[in-house]
Fold:
Amino acid sequence: MRMNPMWSRLKVTSLALVTLAVLLAMMTGCLSRAKRVTDETPLDTETVVMKDMAVTTNVALYKEWSEDVNGMLKAHIILRNKRNTTVKLEIKTIFKDDQGVPLETVSDTWHPIMILSNEDYHYEKLCPVPGAASYQFLVKTAGK
Structure:
């Protein structure tokens, strides 16, 4: 018994759509949204904090990690621009001791970055003083 060619094309199209949906779900599954806070929200143990809604809407947290470099903590973050336009941000890194107390460093400033349309941006920061046990990235829209 022969199958109707129209039915056969419909099955192939359906299979292709399901495969595409599964692949898309797998690719976007590795992205996550960082916690959004306001000025009234106490900074807690989150390692990446988005300071405004524009950042949480336009940027996804792709990956973060830290490493020891000659006894100093080096923190890394990869942000992914989800928009078709360039996103301008500022990042501040806070290093903390083993008790969770922020360390005073000379480099406690906001650093401007630009992430091109639909691109990833790798930002890294080495703690300039010894004794850092953890870190926190604060991310905001430039100029806010």
